[in-house]
Amino acid sequence: MLVVAALGGNALLKRGEPLTAEAQRENVRVATQSLAAVVKAGHNLVVTHGNGPQVGLLALQSAAYKPNEAYPLDVLGAETEGMIGYMIEQELENALDHAQPVATLLTQVVVDGRDPAFKKPSKFVGPVYERTEADARAKAAGWTIAADGDKWRRVVASPRPVEIPDFRIIRLLLDHGVVVVCTGGGGIPVVRRDDGTLIGIEAVIDKDAASALLAHQLGADALLLLTDVDAVYRGFGGEGAEPISRMSPEEARVFGAPAGSMGPKITAAGDFAETGAFAGIGRLEDAIAILAGRAGTRIEKAIGQVDPSIRR
User: How confident is the model over 166-179, as a mean pLDDT?
Assistant: First the structure.
């Protein structure tokens, strides 16, 4: 199978961990063991990943140098693709005993410059803060902030991805037996001008939405959205919460998970499953079991009627 595996932010940096190269590398080293198992099972693999904490850190570093000359988010996104992609590429090559080539590709993703998301920032980036510090930083830098659990973080525009022009290069690499690391952090956000040329824009694209679009354009057989939760749960966080082993795309659309947690993953999985392939949501270490239908939540067509209890 051709598998697109999207690593959640926890695969790179667990909540509360310091934003150090050492912490990220150790997490990547663990993550790549599961990814290597997918390749060793005979599957072709494309790896995508998040970049929220990293792009926020680079934005802080950039602003600390010369606030009026800070780099825009598209450039910072490209920097994180290189930084994180390098770690994943190296550790995955090591996990595969260098028996198969791995390549990282900086990936442009086209968005619509008129997307309403530009008027309503919602994508978390950077570290978490206490409310007082977040307010002070927002006032000084002109940020929009929002609650993230019991902490506060910067939020930026997250427009919907509409096209991945670099997918042809990704396909070329796959045809030559290369494991590809790409579309990091949702890809580098660009818009297409009237003359057809591309230019970067200030935004961060949702990684799961971009991964679903990539999987669709590549004609992938499976999309894995890998996180630190073993499945999608009905009544998550409450007493009697129950894992859901299977969902249809329609069930995914009406599930109603919070936008700040599982919501984007379920939406992306449902969108991809409409193509006739399947998506799986679950723990990184269960990647092989999710592919086999033994773990996680599997989203695919033709599995029966919508379960009324999924509606909220």
Answer: 96
Residues with a known catalytic role: 9-10, 123, 207, 265
CA distance 243 to 70: 44
The proportion of the chain whose per-residue pLDDT surpasses 70, expressed as a percent, equals: 95
Give pTM, 2 decimals: 0.88
Phi, psi at 65, each rounded to 5°: -75, -65
Mean pLDDT over each residue of the chain, to the nearest integer: 90
Q: Among 199, 224, 227, 230, which Cα is nearest to 211's?
A: 224
Query: What per-residue confidence (pLDDT) applies to 127?
Result: 80
pLDDT higher than threshold 90 for residue 305: no
More confident residue, 173 or 68: 173
